[in-house]
Design goal:
about 20% helix; 2 helices; SH3 type barrels; alpha+beta; about 35% strand
Length: about 80
């Protein structure tokens, strides 16, 4: 599965799933926060740019909103490339 932290900049993607690596309270809270920001299955998403050094945080557009996400957060967002 491709995750947002491995996305190509300026390529359109669709969110396929949000997933927790572990089922801790903090991971579940992170999932809830991302969901509330609009990171939901089927929504369009695009990586706008990576910051240097280490690509953390990443600038991401979901729907019509722009956010800075840490790589750890982006790693929990499964995406599918949108063609056409």
């Amino acid at each position: 599965m491709l995750t947002l932290d491995h996305a190509i900049a300026n390529q359109k993607y669709r969110i396929s799933q949000l997933h927790c690596e572990q089922s801790t309270h903090s991971d579940q809270e992170r999932m809830r926060q991302l969901f509330e920001l609009g990171f939901i299955k089927g929504e369009s998403v695009m990586l706008l740019r990576r910051t240097m050094p280490g690509s953390d945080p990443m600038v991401v557009r979901v729907g019509s909103s722009t956010f800075a996400l840490r790589r750890a957060e982006a790693r929990t967002i499964g995406v599918e490339m949108v063609t056409s």
